[in-house]
Specification:
Elements lengths: L1 E7 L4 E7 L5 E5 L5 H11 L2 E6 L5 H4 L2 H7 L4 E4 L13 E4 L4 E4 L2 E7 L8 E5 L2 E5 L2 E2 L2 E2 L9 H11 L7 E4 L9 E2 H7 L1 H8 L2 H7 L3
Parallel strand pairs: 3-4, 4-5, 5-6, 10-13
Antiparallel strand pairs: 1-2, 2-3, 7-8, 8-9, 9-10, 11-12, 13-14
Helix pairs in contact: 4-6, 5-6, 6-7
């Protein structure tokens, strides 16, 4: 399994390419900002782009979908609660529910429904890596003061993620920290938002996010 992390756009977004060396199949996560750069990376890797996955519907994570689908007619997997915002791409949309599994060759991708930032936010668990979108950042978590956000659901989602093995590598949706990734075991110690959800009551988390 090959992971490629691309930082693209003015909001320091991370776009991910995940490839399976045997079949040369590749998936793109959150295609946005610079589709030519994404397609160049796919070509340079010698891979075949076979699907896209969206962690949530916000434009800074999806504004490249139109250009991507013009170049590559692939299915787009999004949680069913966020699919309404991407109805322009309905011919390609594959609305998913939490817990569904996708396969990239022999690589298993589990879609974890982690509402809070949006109703349909989802993380991708791929072996010992967690692609977390805007649910969990290195040292922080996603905003919960937006119209479609829910701080109580974010608390529940982060509490769930805190139960993953400590060796899990966190791969966030933005470059908001000194490091582009982190082990979950260190985040459980150093990330106050994740620690509050893992160890404390809802009220502690709400106080942290100013609710």
């Amino acid at each position: 399994m090959i992971f490629k992390q691309l930082e693209l756009g003015p909001m320091a977004n991370y776009v991910y390419l995940v490839a399976e060396p045997g079949t040369k199949e590749c998936v793109v996560v959150d295609p946005a900002w610079d589709v030519p750069a994404i397609l160049r990376a796919v070509e340079e890797g010698g891979w075949r782009l076979t699907r896209a996955i969206v962690t949530h519907y916000h434009p800074d994570h999806t504004n490249g979908l139109g250009a991507l689908l013009q170049a590559k007619d692939v299915p787009v997997h999004v949680h069913k609660d966020d699919a309404h915002a991407l109805k322009a791409f309905k011919e390609n949309l594959k609305p998913a529910a939490g817990g569904e599994k996708l396969f990239l060759g022999k690589v298993e991708i589990t879609l974890l429904h982690t509402p809070g930032h949006t109703k349909g936010s989802q993380c991708l668990l791929i072996s010992d890596r967690l692609v977390s979108g805007d649910t969990l950042f290195v040292g922080n978590c996603g905003r919960v003061d937006l119209p479609d956000s829910d701080p109580e659901k974010m608390y529940q989602s982060l509490r769930r993620l805190s139960g993953l093995p400590g060796r899990t590598v966190l791969l966030p949706g933005h470059n908001y920290a000194e490091a582009p990734s982190a082990l979950l075991e260190s985040e459980k110690l150093d990330n106050p938002y994740l620690r509050a959800c893992a160890e404390g009551p809802l009220e502690d988390f709400l106080a942290l996010v100013g609710m």
